[in-house]
Amino acid sequence: MLRKDILQKTGLTLAALRHYEKRGLLHPHRHPDGKFNRYDETHIEVIAQILMLQRLGMSLEKIQAFQEASVEEQRSKLREAINEGFSQVSNTQQALQKAFGKLLSLHGLAE
């Protein structure tokens, strides 16, 4: 498939796709005449993985290391990212509860 097709299927912007290619996260097939890149379903899977790892808070540097790691190392890095995400959610929840309590107190609505 062509670049426009992969952009449509993944929702990526052209700038993001080029950035992933430049960073070495995505390796399109070069058309024999060298004029354009070709993509297949494997590239869609790689993009989905990149987006999922970014949502877990991984930087592109960490994602590149993840891609280069063995399956066991990937498992470990994924567990680490998920645990870190849960920790961030917990910290955010605690901060929101504290802020909510202060707001209630300020307005005389605390129990």
From TrEMBL:
The keyword Transcription applies. The keyword Acyltransferase does not apply. InterPro entries: DNA-bd_dom_put_sf (IPR009061), MerR-type_HTH_dom (IPR000551), MerR_fam (IPR047057). Keywords: DNA-binding, Repressor, Transcription, Transcription regulation. It holds the Pfam family MerR_1. It comes from the Bacteria. Residues 8-69 form the HTH merR-type domain. This is HTH merR-type domain-containing protein.
